[in-house]
Amino acid sequence: MGAQFFLTDCYQNLTAASCARITRDAATGQVLSVDTTRSNQASLETEGVDIQVEWSVPIGPGQLTINELYSIIDSYQFNGVEFAGSTSAVIGGTRPDYKSVLSVTYNVGDWTLFGRYTYVPSMYAAGVCAAYAWCDDSPDASYVDLSARWNITDSFSLTANVDNIFDDYPPQTAEGTFSQANTDPQVYRVLGRTFAISGRYRF
């Protein structure tokens, strides 16, 4: 935090810790310096568990692999306030009670086919609940991604991706800010359906 924060916090809020950072001239009272070194101003405590299960079996001419990653947040407390199951329109502001990512891969010959289904449940808007007597729930979100890789030679491969194939748009929170499209771009897809083709050469 900068010097202005501590000056404002001292003169307007009379916070003793901020006032102690200010050095004044003994004769005039003029501010000579402000201590802006780092200090522990907050606490963050979280508890949860990740469960991952994978199953692989030969089917037809290829190998089918199914992988499920299920993440659970039991608690997410910032300065003693519980935020698990809440969302806000900032990067990293989404803290779902759980999240599921299901992946399916099929390898056959020189081809690898891949599909992924991601699900994020409905959450309450943390800022609205704190400021008002009601909570506005954001809708759940799910995304399907598909890709195919062709190993043309031992050294060269081509990969095609289609992410968010159903073109689902991100849920918006009631207290959102325009700079983040009223959502959390770290969790939700803000670009809609996207396509990509890439090549890889090993030498």
Question: What would a concise description of this structure say?
Answer:
The chain has three helices and 13 strands.
What does this 3D model show about the protein?
This protein has 203 residues and is mainly β. It folds into two domains: 1-41, no CATH class; 42-201, no CATH class. It contains three helices and 13 strands, in the order ααβββββββββαββββ. The strands form three sheets. Strands 3, 4, 5, 7, 8, 11, 12 and 13 form an eight-stranded antiparallel β-sheet that branches. A hairpin with a 4-residue loop joins strand 11 and strand 12 (156-163). The longest helix has 11 residues, at 3-13. The radius of gyration is 25 Å and the shape is elongated. The relative contact order is 0.12. The model has no long low-confidence stretch (mean pLDDT 86).
Q: Helix segment count?
A: 3
Question: What sequence of helices (H) and strands (E) makes up the elements?
Answer: HHEEEEEEEEEHEEEE
The structural domain count equals 2
Radius of gyration: 25 Å
Straight-line N-to-C gap: 49 Å
Question: What gross morphology would you assign?
Answer: elongated
What's the total count of β strands? 13
Provide the helix percentage: 10-25%
Largest sheet: 8 strands, antiparallel
Low-confidence segments, given as residue ranges, are: none
β content, as a range?
Answer: over 45%
> What value does the average pLDDT take?
86
Decide which structural class fits the backbone.
mainly beta
